[in-house]
Amino acid sequence: MGLKSNLHNLKEKYKGTKMAPAFNAIHTFLYLPNETTHGGTHIKAADDLKRTMNIVIMALIPCLIFGIFNAGYQYYAAIDAAAGITREASLFANFITWDNFVVGAWTVLPLVIVSYGVGLIVEFIFAVIKGHEVEEGYLVTGMLVPLIVPVDIPLWMLSVAVIFGVVIGKEVFGGTGMNILNPALTIRAFLFFAYPTWMSGDKVWVHEAVERAGTADAISGETLLGAYAQNSSLAGIDYMDMFFGFIPGSVGETSKLLIIIGALFLIFTKVGSWRIIVSTLIGALTMGLIFNGVVSAEWIGESSKFYGLMNVPFWQHLIIGSILFGAVYMATDPVTASQTNKGKWIYGFLIGFISIMIRVFNPAYPEGVFLAILLMNVFAPTIDHYVIQGNVKRRKKRLKVKTA
Asked: Measured at the alpha carbon of residue 97, what is the angle toward residues 91 and 98, in degrees to the nearest 5?
């Protein structure tokens, strides 16, 4: 009660001043939102923006914890590989260990701190300047960003990207609920195009592996998706390792099991749209099947390296990259996704379809799901527009028939 009373006194002291949004934000974070919807008729419900954001964060926490352990595991596995030792993932013997946790926490937690720290500072500045309440929308973005970047991305690069993403991806459109692009994906896109050497290749996914191994050629932290894109040898790769996530990759995107559990949680709580998730996966499988059907050995010939991902069995596309993570946590963003039920099916299908198309045709950027989602963010309002117009025309036609 003491803390709540002190915060209330601060709110009253700074009420009406430019610093009021900053103090209101602290109170909102600890307790309930300060503002409720004013004017008009609205559906009464127990949920609010803060609760919705917290549910998504709860669905992401298992991916974050796994990513911490996996960062440490991949670090030691790379060192062992340089010494000619094969390290096999055993959940409790080699994976969930104190050593893995320490290395992972040392590398991953700073990403989380910088993401939230820089992003919330920008949010506070805009709230003070514009005189509105600090919005809770960045709570999810701040958690997503560390999960979709390489573990060794320099913190200053992440800071610059977060500032760009929050300002250009959200604030210029009016803040939470008004943006047309997913802010987390805007941040990732900025990083990829501004600092491509830190976002791709086979040395960026394992923490300091090159330095520890002693030579750049001693280890390879190449992702399975990158290996497929270059038609590299994948002998000995265990599909269960792909599914459980004992592979190099972005911090929170490797464990398909935890992503599926998170998807079920979001669907059960009615925060994530099952239509978008399912249609995205259907679109990806459809494009994979098409490539599997049109590519033959005669076509490949001397240029086999350009067709590595075309030969991937269609179902493997769901476990070798980030498309499952994107479908669950990015495509379902309620602000930037389609709003109509039919529109969600179209929107999700095109995301999956285009993701695999980018993945196959651009080996330099085989992880195309994020660009596909950003593209469809732009077209989501258009999809909804035509869905609604089609519904209006059908209703008018039925009315005309009945009154004829």
From this structure: 165
What's the predicted TM-score (pTM) here? 0.83
Between 110 and 199, name the one with better pLDDT: 110
Mean pLDDT of 211-232: 52
Query: What is the average pLDDT value for the chain, to the nearest integer?
Result: 79
Share above pLDDT 90 across residues of the chain, in percent, rounded to a whole number: 35
pLDDT for the residue 130: 73
CA contacts within 13 A on the Cβ side of 194: 17
Is-contact 170 121, C-beta < 8 A? no
pLDDT in tens, 161-203: 999 998 888 888 877 777 888 999 999 999 988 888 887 766 6
Cα–Cα distance, 33 to 70 (Å, whole number):
36
Q: Which of 115, 143, 148, 118 is nearest to 252 (CA)?
A: 148
User: 154-159 long-range contacts, Cβ below 8 Å, gap at least 24?
Assistant: 154/198, 155/110, 155/111, 155/114, 157/191, 157/194, 157/195, 157/198, 158/111, 158/114, 158/115, 158/118, 158/191, 159/114, 159/118
What's the pLDDT score for residue 202? 60
Give dist(CA 6, CA 23) in Å, integer. 11
Among 165, 312, 346, residue whose Cα is nearest residue 239 = 312
Q: Residue 268: what are its φ and ψ, rounded to 5°?
A: -60, -40
Q: Give me the pLDDT at residue 38, please.
A: 55
Q: Tokens representing 13? A: 């002291």
Measured between alpha carbons, how far is 404 from 387 in angstroms, rounded to an integer?
26
Is the separation of the CB atoms in 241 and 27 below 8 Å? Answer: no
